[in-house]
Every structure is written in structure tokens, then in C-alpha cells.
Design goal:
iron, 15 strands, alpha+beta, Jelly Rolls, five-stranded antiparallel sheet, binds gibberellin A4, metal ion binding, 365 residues, eight-stranded mixed sheet
Length: 365
């Protein structure tokens, strides 16, 4: 058995959740992708929970295990090695005012918008340890965050001893290609279930070559010392909603994922390494004018077992306007949201804390 290294616990402010353990979410909607009538069940699951599980998908197990073993290999390296693959530029477009001064920033701002857009919001890509985002969120987690754009620079991994960037690139590409295909299939079934034509309204955004999608490998090492802190639970990844359209998660058989249901209670999701879990993201909430709600979720660490998850976040191109689909507006219904592009939303999201409701700023009323 491979033993994964733990994140360095020095200076880690331990976040304790002392409330009683939530119940298991045993009634989680299960969508069988091989059944054509699943489209209505997908709509129902998105309306009721913003969350569901997918079985009988076509993603080859081989791709999943290859990526899993690449991830285990990487996370097993010494911390000093992994840090070499850390984010290179923490200050992208949107944060330059804070991170840079003088001529460099002025030059940047005087360039055409099309050029500035290339810089995108802060570059959070590469290896991260405990720090989530740029605004002080932390968790008992280490991760690799990647842009699914083919231009992503895998050379970040080149100086990490024992890690071959080409192997990581190939494993991520194979996996993401399949998961993206499945996501598009789900989004098309969703559109059909909603009676929207053409049915590619959502999927074309993920298929677009400029689709701003990201991919994340999260490793939650076990935390045997929890009792020492007189805590029941330690936060691995704090509560949040995902900003994109759809998120597709696959994990090993270690529990930890929890979702917040409409009744205000947290429920633990029983792990299932052969299935995928789908989240409605903020952008899909807006495109359905609030008919679907993005689901709040979080991950708690396990006392004995490592949890490894891989998540694809399907997002639109940066220039895409995120607005309710006219065909979904009934009668006099008007948009609940102000007009904004994905770039504007993402820029604002990356300035927020994890637990914030990021859509509030964009609501009309
Ligand atoms: C949540 C979903 C994805 O993991 C992510 C996260 C991003 C990050 O890790 O840098 C954010 C978070 C996520 C939303 C609010 C901001 C940005 C951390 C954070 C505090 C990659 C994403 O797109 O948004």
C-alpha cells in the first residue's frame, strides 16, 4: 500500500466542526445514463437537490485508475518537491492593482481588453497545500489545480523528482476528455428534459475551444490527531458552491463529502468509486433563472483513510454572457440577475471567501 505524505501541520489553524455527525444522504438521486428516460429524473434532481449520482457511464475505469495512480505518485513525494509545482503567478488580471505597482501595472492596464483577458483572473494553477484561493481560506487538503486548456504548462511538474509531467498530462487529458464528453451528454439530456431547443445550449459552452474549465485533484490525508484537538471533525475543504455550470466529481472509497439540503441540514454522501457525483454550479442556477440551485457542499477529513478526489468544473468561455435562457422564462417572468459575463463573475468569485454567496452581488432584487 502506498503511504501518502501529510501536509505540513505547522501553523495550521485547525478548523473544528463540533456539531453532531450528519446522517447519510441515502436517497440521493441516481441517474442511469444508459436509460433514455433519465432526462426527466436529471431535471427533478437538479430542481430538488442540485446534486445527483451517475451510474452506467462510459468513462473507462482504466483512465480513472491511471490518473489515480499518477496522483498518488505525485502526492507521495516530499513536500519540498511538491512545492516546486506551486502556482507561478498569484496576481492575474483583477488582482494586479493589489499585487503589483508602478509601470508594470500601468502598462498592463493600458493594453487592449482582448490582451488583458488573456491574463484572466489570478493564476491559481499548480500545487497547493492547505491554502484554498487567495483570500485566507484553509483546509486539511493538498491539491493540484489545472486549466483544462491545452496550453496549460505541465512543465511546472518537470522539476519535481520522480514525477514525469508528460505522464500527468496524458492521464489528465484522457480522463478530462471522457468526463467532458459525459458532462455534455448530461447537459444535453437536461436541456431535453427542460424542453429547450437546440439541446446543445449548455453543452456548446463546454465544447467551445475557449471554454474556461478547470480540473482539480484533491488529496485529504487522514488526520489521526483529531481527538487531540478535542474535535469531532476537521474541515478538509470548507463549504462553498461551485461558480461554473456543472461539476463532476469522482473519489476513492473514502467518505467525507457532504451536501447542504434545502431543509438546512448537512448530509454525508456515501462514497462510490465507480460512479460520478454531479453538482449544479452558480452559472447553471443563473441560466435557469434560479429554477436549479447550485448546491453547497464541503469535505470533512477522515481519521484513518486518505481521500482522493478528481473534479472537472465545466465553465463557459470568458466572454460568454451568463443570463437566464429566454425559453425558460414563463409569461411575465423577468431575470432575477443583472447582466454579466463569465469573466466578470469569475473575477468577482476569485476575490471572495469560500463560504460566501457569490451570486448575491449579481442579484437584481
Ligand atoms: C470552488 C470551485 C473550484 O475548486 C475552484 C475554486 C477556487 C480556487 O480554489 O481557487 C475558489 C473557489 C472555487 C470559489 C471562491 C474562490 C475561488 C477558491 C476561493 C476562495 C477552482 C473555482 O473555480 O472556484
Amino acid at each position: 500500500m502506498v503511504v501518502l505524505t501529510e501536509p505540513d501541520i505547522d501553523h495550521l489553524p485547525i478548523i473544528i466542526n463540533s456539531c453532531k455527525s450528519p446522517s447519510f444522504f441515502n436517497d440521493i438521486p441516481v441517474i442511469d445514463l444508459s436509460k433514455p428516460d433519465s432526462k426527466n429524473l436529471i431535471v427533478k434532481a437538479c430542481e430538488e437537490f442540485g446534486f445527483f449520482k451517475v451510474v452506467n457511464h462510459d468513462v473507462p475505469m482504466d483512465f480513472i485508475s491511471k490518473l489515480e495512480s499518477e496522483a498518488i505518485n505525485f502526492f507521495s513525494s516530499p513536500l519540498s518537491e511538491k512545492l516546486k509545482a506551486g502556482p507561478a503567478d498569484p496576481f492575474g488580471y483583477g488582482n494586479k492593482q493589489i499585487g503589483q505597482s508602478g509601470d508594470e501595472a500601468i502598462n498592463f492596464f493600458s493594453s487592449p481588453l482582448s490582451e488583458k483577458l488573456k491574463a484572466g483572473p489570478a493564476d491559481p494553477f499548480g500545487y497547493g497545500n492547505k491554502k484554498i484561493g487567495q483570500n485566507g481560506d484553509i483546509g486539511w487538503v493538498e491539491y493540484i489545480l489545472l486549466s483544462t486548456n491545452s496550453e496549460f504548462n505541465y512543465q511546472k511538474f518537470a522539476s519535481v523528482l520522480g514525477v514525469n509531467p508528460e505522464n500527468i498530462r496524458a492521464a489528465v487529458n484522457d480522463y478530462v476528455t471522457e468526463v467532458k464528453k459525459m458532462s455534455c451528454e448530461i447537459l444535453e439530456m437536461l436541456a431535453e428534459g427542460l424542453n429547450i431547443h437546440p439541446t446543445n445550449v449548455f453543452s456548446k459552452l463546454l465544447k467551445d475551444e475557449k471554454s474556461d474549465s478547470v480540473f482539480r485533484l484533491n488529496h485529504y490525508p487522514p488526520c489521526p490527531d483529531i481527538q487531540e484537538f478535542n474535535a469531532k471533525n476537521l474541515i478538509g475543504f470548507g463549504e462553498h458552491t461551485d461558480p461554473q455550470i456543472i461539476s463532476v466529481l469522482r473519489s476513492n472509497n473514502t467518505s467525507g463529502l457532504q451536501v447542504l439540503l434545502k431543509n438546512g441540514n448537512w448530509f454525508s454522501v456515501p462514497p462510490d468509486q465507480n460512479s460520478f457525483f454531479i453538482n449544479v454550479g452558480d452559472s447553471l442556477q443563473v441560466m435557469t433563472n434560479g429554477r436549479f440551485k447550485s448546491v453547497k457542499h464541503r469535505v470533512l477529513t477522515n481519521r484513518v483513510k486518505s481521500r482522493l478526489s478528481m473534479i472537472y468544473f465545466g465553465g463557459p468561455p470568458l466572454s460568454e454572457k451568463i443570463a437566464p435562457l429566454p425559453s425558460l422564462m414563463e409569461g411575465e417572468e423577468s431575470s432575477l440577475y443583472k447582466e454579466f459575463t463569465w469573466f466578470e463573475y469569475k473575477k468577482s468569485a476569485f476575490k471572495s471567501r469560500l463560504a460566501e454567496n457569490r451570486l448575491t452581488l449579481f442579484e437584481k432584487f
